Amino acid sequence: MKRRTTMVSLIAAVVLLAVTVLPVVAQGAGEKEIVLDYFSGRVETVDWDAEKIAGFEAENPGITVEYEFQKDASNVIKVKLASGEVPDITTVVNQDFIDQGIYMDLSDAAFWNRILPSVKDLCTDLRTGKQYKVATNVTMGGLFYNKAVFTELGLSDAQTWEQFVANLEAIKKAYPDKTPLFLGGKDSWTLGHFVEFWAHGIVKQQLGIPGSRQAFLDNTVEWDAPNGIMENFAKALLELRDKGLLNSDAITATYDNQKEAFASGEAVIINQGMWVVGDIVKLNPAMATNIGFGPFPSVVKGLSPMVLCAEDSVYAISATSEHQDAALKFLEYMFSVEVQKEYSEARSMPSAFIDVESNWSPIKDDAKRLASAYVNINFSTEAPSGLSVDDTGRLIQKLLNGDYASPKVFATEYQKLWDNAY
């Protein structure tokens, strides 16, 4: 009898434990149900993002971040939005999506007090005067070159297109085993940046940054004007191809191939942004003191060389997210001084946060010189989302492949695609 009493008492104790403990477990499980979808197109930071997400989750056990990276993010996100899959947080932001109300209004966020006013201006939507995205860094883009080769051949920043071609020809003559200008065209965005910086840059120089942003927004630029921007741009690229100044596999070589070629000394010049510097130095630490940085010479006569000086590494939060507070908490973690210092140095770009000090790049002296000496241009943030840098890059692939009868036909086709994208 005593044994039976003990068993009954034990069962009663277990039932009582279940009654008192189960609600606590259920509440903990409820906290775990906050899942943030984070969608990114930044190829340079895939491992870094995963590492930071793990750190955030460790500090915030009630939140899980599901991270997705896509190389062709600007097009993949269109499919997601069309099917109602809006990421809680994304690095893909364009004007069409802002106009559609996809993003949360971040105008009152506390982090703006820490960000450079010029960067906040570039993050401001022209239509509403509000901020639907936030950028963590300032970046620059231009032509990266091998300093040793330039010094040996007595070359300097090209002030005109003719001087640029002459520089490439001098390199080809002195180093027939090297590629004067290496393109990683299989990753189409790298060619799309040719258009964004080198062709769109003409409009930005002619109208200024505010004027060009408005012109893109209003679709008033004549891309197909006779002997205009796009026709001259196409002529310029075909001249480089026809003179053998590009790599023979310019359409099939990848972004990784481009970085490797430059790091090894096989390529003398590449067209990129600051985001490439960290990877090049990782591939070959000796290149840290051998990377030169120059501007884009104009493909239109009479205009000055240009250099990209713009906001970089943007984030946006979904306007319809059920977890906006958690998304803001994630951004607060990513925007902390420690994390941003690490990011700035990893990406070789100065931080947009005024309280972050970092030894961000071996090219910072050149960057400062270019920013003060040449016309500053920005990203084409008001260009139509239907014509992303990936889409534009595919046009350049076709151009270099000889699919257009003439530069004029290319310009006409670009105008048509631009108009249709609206």
CATH fold title of the largest domain: D-Maltodextrin-Binding Protein, domain 2
Provide the CATH top-level class of the largest domain. Answer: Alpha Beta
Instruction: Please give the CATH architecture of the largest domain.
Output: 3-Layer(aba) Sandwich
| Count of distinct structural domains | 2
Helix content: 40-55%
Structural class: alpha/beta
Rg, Cα atoms, Å: 26 Å
Distance between the termini: 86 Å
Using the alpha-carbon principal axes, give the shape: globular
Report low-confidence residues grouped into runs of 5 or more.
Answer: 1-30
Strand content: 5-15%
CATH homology-level superfamily of the largest domain: Periplasmic binding protein-like II
The number of strands is 9
* Topology pattern, helix = H, strand = E: HEHEHEHHEHHEHHHEHEEHHHEHH
Q: What's the pLDDT, averaged over the residues?
A: 91
3D architecture notes:
The chain is of the alpha/beta class. The model is unreliable at 1-30 (pLDDT under 50). It has helices at residues 2-31, 46-59, 73-82, 95-99, 117-122, 147-153, 161-174, 188-218, 229-242, 255-264, 277-283, 324-334, 337-347, 364-373, 389-400, 407-421, and strands spanning 34-40, 63-69, 89-90, 134-146, 179-182, 267-273, 291-294, 306-317, 375-377. Helix 8 (188-218) crosses helix 15, helix 9 (229-242) packs across helix 16 (407-421) and helix 10 packs across helix 11. The protein starts with a helix and ends with a helix. Strands 1, 2, 3, 4, 5, 6, 7, 8 and 9 form a nine-stranded mixed sheet that branches. 45% of the residues are buried.
